[in-house]
Design a protein that fits this description.
By secondary structure, this protein is an alpha/beta fold. The strands form two sheets. It has an eight-stranded mixed β-sheet, with helices on both faces. A two-stranded antiparallel ribbon has the order 1-2.
């Protein structure tokens, strides 16, 4: 791993910058098959012999490529509306619709429209002018939430609880974090708290073998809270720096499963009243507006402290991160635009705004 990549990881994770048994969630045969196929693919990728690494493009280039669908949707629409003519009320209405359809959120769309109306109404304006305003306003929304995840070295272990619905890439994100922390020389343990899915347990075991991080796991269907309690106790005894806790992917409207998540939090606090020290919600950018409701429920039930957004490279709905930030103002620690370890990177408001505005 290059020094440049390790430096980026250090800035993000090193802190150099500032009880009833729940019902098992039913999965369709298609979902089970897809999950199994993904696990096979993940396993093959993780266990394949190392080959000479190809020359990779810069992170910003990958970010622009990843947000290409979102950016194209916006810039093409803006170009179609503004061809060096006066800014009129009807055009502003159309632009507001375009911004909302791109999942930027009503609040951000209204702010952009207000800025244009105040400074450029009834004046000549170009598509480039509008994109410049878009970039500035999006960056203003995102800058306050672009914060690194600070690891407290006084906490041994620093417990990071990972939550989210099925399919967001939560377990894979845990593996990537473990690899990044291990690259910094930290002692890492992973707890396979998603006891409902054998695939998730196996996936963490593979990441553990690859990174040299210990994995605490149990049988499929085992009590998740009990397993997490055991992992936390072992991590304290072993002087582990960071304990990454996986949890079962659950829909935010499944009360039994959400209660099981609350139980995991209560069990952690029996050992350490300050744990978990971070609760990271992993969001899938392709879900669009549904991600907003996920933030609301997981924040209430699990005390979410920060966000990681994945799959920005596969959606035209990347603007949803702006809407979430404007409404909830939770720290955004990292974003993912690909499958490799270094495709999960620190969130930078300026780079994101520039990429989404197509500039």
């Amino acid at each position: 791993m290059s020094g440049k990549v390790q430096g980026a990881f250090s800035r993000l994770w090193g802190g150099k910058r500032a009880a009833d048994q729940p019902a098992v969630e039913t999965e369709t045969p298609a979902a089970v098959e897809a999950d199994a196929l993904q696990t096979v693919a993940d396993s093959a990728a993780l266990t394949a012999p190392e080959e000479a690494a190809p020359v990779k493009t810069s992170w910003f280039t990958r970010l622009k490529q990843g947000l290409g669908k979102t950016s194209t949707k916006l810039t093409d629409g803006i170009t179609g509306l503004f061809t060096k003519k006066k800014l009129e009320a009807a055009t502003l209405d159309d632009l507001e619709d375009l911004l909302i359809e791109a999942d930027l959120g009503i609040a951000t769309a209204e702010k952009i429209i207000a800025t244009l109306r105040k400074g450029r109404f009834e004046k000549d304006i170009s598509a480039d002018d509008v994109r410049a305003v878009l970039k500035t306003e999006v960056e203003d929304v995102l800058r306050p939430v672009a914060k690194p995840l600070v690891i407290d070295s006084k906490q041994k272990p620093h417990v990071i609880l990972m939550v989210g619905v099925n399919g967001t890439g939560k377990t894979t994100t845990i593996g990537k974090l473990a690899a990044q922390f291990r690259a910094e020389g930290k002692k890492v343990m992973m707890a396979a708290g998603d006891t409902f899915r054998a695939a998730a347990i196996e996936q963490l075991r593979i990441w553990g073998e690859r990174t040299g991080a210990e994995v605490v796991s149990g049988a499929t269907g085992a009590d998740a809270a009990g397993l997490v309690y055991d992992a936390f106790s072992r991590a304290k005894d072993a002087g582990v720096d960071i304990l990454l806790v996986d949890t079962a992917g659950r829909l935010q409207n499944k009360e039994g499963l959400m209660e099981e998540l609350s139980k995991v939090v209560r069990v952690l606090r029996k050992i350490d009243a300050t744990a978990p020290h971070d609760v990271l919600l992993v969001l899938d950018a392709t879900t669009g507006q549904n991600a907003l409701s996920q933030v609301e429920v997981f924040r209430e039930r699990a005390g979410v402290t920060g966000l990681v957004m994945t799959k920005l490279d596969g959606t035209a709905r990347g603007g949803i991160l702006v809407a979430i930030s404007a409404k909830h103002k939770l720290p955004v620690h990292a974003i993912g635009v690909g499958e490799s370890v270094d495709d999960l990177q620190p969130f930078d408001a300026g780079e994101f705004a520039q990429a989404i505005a197509g500039s």
